[in-house]
Amino acid sequence: MTGRSPKSELYDHFSRVGKALASPARLEMLDLLSQGEKTVEQLAGQARLGIKNASAHLRTLREARLVEARKDPPYVLYRVADDAVLRVVRELQALARERLAEVEQITRTYFEAPSDLEPIDVHQLLERLEEGAVTVLDVRPRDEYTAGHIPGAVSMPIEELERRLAEIPPGRPVVAYCRGPFCVFASEAVDTLQKYGFAAQRMKSGVPEWRLAGRAVATGER
Amino acid sequence: MTGRSPKSELYDHFSRVGKALASPARLEMLDLLSQGEKTVEQLAGQARLGIKNASAHLRTLREARLVEARKDPPYVLYRVADDAVLRVVRELQALARERLAEVEQITRTYFEAPSDLEPIDVHQLLERLEEGAVTVLDVRPRDEYTAGHIPGAVSMPIEELERRLAEIPPGRPVVAYCRGPFCVFASEAVDTLQKYGFAAQRMKSGVPEWRLAGRAVATGER
DNA sequence: ATCCTATTCTAAAGAATGATAGAATGAGTG
DNA sequence: CACTCATTCTATCATTCTTTAGAATAGGAT
């Protein structure tokens, strides 16, 4: 596996990136880190891993230069090193969805609510935002909203949605988004909203796709 | 590693693709297969692997649905299953080049001739083809030219170049291309051509990038 | 200084992957 | 119907990856 010719050395390096993407745990952590920087503890919790295990995977990711760390005592905050990482992960997921029938089936069964007839994409959301007649809800945990959200969106973590329905202007269409195409929060939100009579729709993608589409991302509390 | 929740099942499937991309041998074979379908024997020879080993890697790639096989007795011909595979491999290589300094350095040292000041890209080649005043040389092995080449290009495998120089119109700029950004044939060709007084340039990419850019690909002998 | 906390480092067992040899398959061909 | 050839399947061993436990580090806080 050690490179003798320049060519095999080159492919050895390419495979460093491939190896970093060869574990479900690391792919999930990359998805989580796409939402903004996180501590080891947050990552371990959200990906349901032990802390030591999460730390080991993070080391692998860091050695492949896909993530970077920053100290903010007493924490260490990890983040995705480059938008190119997001592009690769997104292409990999798109490929898996296209080529592996199981992925498409799981997606349909678990990540798209039955009522969820027509999720909209980044461009459609943009159009409707320009028309001005839509309420956009960010149903991710609040710290992910703070780290970066679609301008104009309201932070409404999924656990708070049901008791904060009064804050949503009635008679106005609502769009909910979460982390991306494989995040359940948005479909759950759409289900709840429709149950209470709102014209609700899910956005297929999340903030990372919004960013990659070249749109500005807002940070901070509100 | 077996999926319990839908989410972990999903990431297990994503990692199937990642695992397939986690070996230098498989990444090299994907690059070779991007040039057109090949037999196990051709692949093993071009990637310097044993036949059985190559076959085992091909099985892995096939199980991840990244390549497909077709029988043409007595041979089995392999091909890349989908353009999405090319996109992922390209993004992965771009990421490695951007994030891993070693890759950039190897590329500069071995894959770009010193005289090779300004390699052109797909769009620039297209412009110059439309102007009409450029000779395009395909310096890959002849069977790869046959499997698919840039319309108007002449097949001139690198081993034949030096004794076929008389066929190249003098006083006219020449562009040489091979398999892609990490293929040495084109730089070697540019060196040789410049030595004999031609105004020669290398194209950075190859037929796969041309295809992905939505351009038509010509097949057959000439 | 010493304590405290988050995190990494070290080490080791278990699981998965890689390379290769030998047997088996399977589709023409004589 | 056997023969031939390319290729795959099966089995093996060495290597690498994953996970987890225990020790060590680093940086504030007391």
Describe the overall structure.
The structure is a homodimer of 222-residue chains. Chain A has 222 residues and is α/β, with parallel strands linked by helices. Chain A folds into two domains: 6-86, Arc Repressor Mutant, subunit A (Orthogonal Bundle), CATH 1.10.10; 113-212, Rhodanese-like domain (Oxidized Rhodanese, domain 1), CATH 3.40.250. In chain A, 50% of the residues lie in helices and 12% in strands. The first copy, chain A, is built from eleven helices and seven strands. The first copy, chain A, has helices at 6-20, 24-33, 40-47, 51-63, 83-99, 101-111, 122-131, 142-147, 158-161, 185-195, 207-212; strands spanning 38-39, 67-72, 75-80, 135-138, 154-155, 174-177, 200-202. Chain A has a four-stranded parallel β-sheet with strand order 5-4-6-7, with helices on one face. In chain A, strands 1-3-2 form a three-stranded antiparallel β-sheet. In chain A, β4 (135-138), α8 (142-147) and β5 (154-155) form a beta-alpha-beta unit. The longest helix of chain A has 17 residues, at 83-99. Chain A is globular, with a radius of gyration of 19 Å. The termini of chain A are far apart. At the A-B interface, α1, α2, α5 and α6 of A face α1, α2, α5 and α6 of B. Chain A binds a DNA duplex (30 and 30 nucleotides) through α4.
